[in-house]
Structure formats: structure tokens, C-alpha cells
Structure of ATP-dependent dethiobiotin synthetase BioD:
Amino acid sequence: MTFACYVTGTDTGIGKTIASAALLHALRAQGLRAVGMKPVASGCEYLDGGWRNEDALALQDASDPRPVYDDINPYALPAATAPELAAREVGVELALAPITAAYQRLVALADGVVVEGVGGWAAPLSAQLDQCDLVRALQLPVVMVVGLRLGCINHARLTVQSIAADGARLVGWIGNDVDPGLAQADAYFDLLSPRIDAPCLGRLPYRPDAAAKELAAWLDCTALLAAC
């Protein structure tokens, strides 16, 4: 395997999944076999004999080769709430071992793995497990998705500081135009760029109906591949 990263965000609902899927397509356009992973997903529907999460399915669809669902999403939790609460509702205790085992199976399949986190960087996975623990266990560099909306400059700078404080390495960031009504969106993006000490991999336009493969055209993963 030549590449792996952990995709986090400045908040929930800022487009980590579409950015991760677009990144998978961008990597595949470079000739790499790239697969996605969503270790923990809350908010699942019971389909085909198991719990399935919409975001994890999107990553599976963007992957080539196509891994089995349980490796992409080892912990599929029914309730659409914080993972710690969703796991508690069904009596599940989240642990690193099943995630690490699934990750190793994905590594064996592909040249690259894109692992999508939950919510923002500081959102816990359980009472004993933070996302930084998972990043350390898998030895992953971090890509941050910034949802361009009111407050994003503060959220982005705090996230950058938190990633560094947790000993993780930020290797790139992606801007995502999640709010079509944001005045001076270009100016917000320009203010962010010099304040994030990592290369910008691109800026995704507001196109809610666009496929991830189309959005991949707005990403350049050259610097990311060089850093990883």
C-alpha cells in the first residue's frame, strides 16, 4: 500500500463523506486502487440482513476494488446520534481491535485507504476511545474538511490546534461550499488558506446533486500523495 489518510471535519454535516468519496475517485484517476472505510457509523437502516449506513455505502460505491461492507464499516449503529450514545443503546462497546483488523484487510486489497471519521475531530467514539486514539493505532495522517459557512474560520483554526495537540499530523485540507447563502465565501476561503499549515487539496463547489466522481475534478491529490 502506498497511501492512507484519516478524514476529519470542522463539525458534523460539513461534507466529510462527499469529500472522502471524491478523494477516492481522485486517487483512482491517478491509477491507484483506492478503498474507503467508515469505522464507526451511527444512523443505520436494516438492509440485506444487516445494518447499513448511507455514508459507508457511498464510500463502498466509490471504492475499487469493492470491499465487503463489514470491513468498510465494522461498527454500524442504528440510532442517528453520537456514537457513544448509539452504542450504549444496543449494548455495544467500541474497541480498537475489530477496527484495526478490518483496516488491515482493506490495506491488503488496495494501494490506498481513505478512513472517514465521525463529526468533528474532538467528537468521541466512546467513553474510553477518542478519534485521536484510532489515528494513532492506525498511524494515519489527517486530512481536514472545512465546511465553508459562518464560523468556519474559528472552527478550522481550533481543529488544526486540536489535531496538533493530540500528536497527529495534518497533511492537507479541503474546502467545501456547504452554504450557498454564505456572503463572501471566496473571501472566507482566502482568509483560511494562510492560516492552515497544510496544502489545500481543493475546494468543492455547492452541487448537492453532483456525483462524487464529478467532484473529484476539483481535487488535486499530488501534495497528499507526496506527504504520505
